[in-house]
Amino acid sequence: MDVNLTLVIVCAALVGCGVYLLLERSLTRVLVGLVLLSNGVNIMFLVASGRAGTSPLVGSSDPEDMADPLPQALVLTAIVITLGTIAFLLAMAHRSWQINGNDDVQDDTEDAAIRKLAYDDATSDSYGLTTDGQHEDDPEEDGAV
């Protein structure tokens, strides 16, 4: 199977840039990253599907000359799913712009509070105690000392 190296490089560049932009805090950059990532994955599907061929329903009766319709169906499905996700993310960015005047994602205060409680619990003296008051990794518990 011959693979077009140009399409592989384009796919890798789109996916790499898309992942980088998805890690940003601005919803606009996340939106652009999602578009780039989805286009890169769609190109990857088409590269992986092999060479172009004739239509599977109309055309040559030889199966070796026919194109595989499954990757094309997967790309069409991915386009529809991406369109819905982009519309949702665009609505979120617009609403965030209306409320806050920017589209940056803020830290969640409840998440920070839960993280602090978990850290305080992990650093406390009672972390890892069993019901009999021994630590889980204490060798005296088994009587081995």
Report what the structure shows.
- This protein has one domain: Helix Hairpins (Orthogonal Bundle), CATH 1.10.287.
- It is mainly α and 145 residues long.
- The chain is built from four helices and no strands.
Keywords:
single chain; 145 residues; Helix Hairpins; 4 helices; 59% helix; 0% strand
Oligomer: single chain
The CATH topology turns out to be Helix Hairpins
Order of helices and strands: HHHH
N-C termini distance = 65 Å
The shape, in one word, is: elongated
CATH structural class: Mainly Alpha
Helix coverage percent of residues? 55-70%
Number of domains: 1
Unreliable runs, pLDDT <50, ≥5 residues?
none
Structural class: mainly alpha
Describe the SSE topology.
Layout: H1 5-22, H2 27-48, H3 69-100, H4 109-122
Helix pairs in contact: 1-2, 2-3
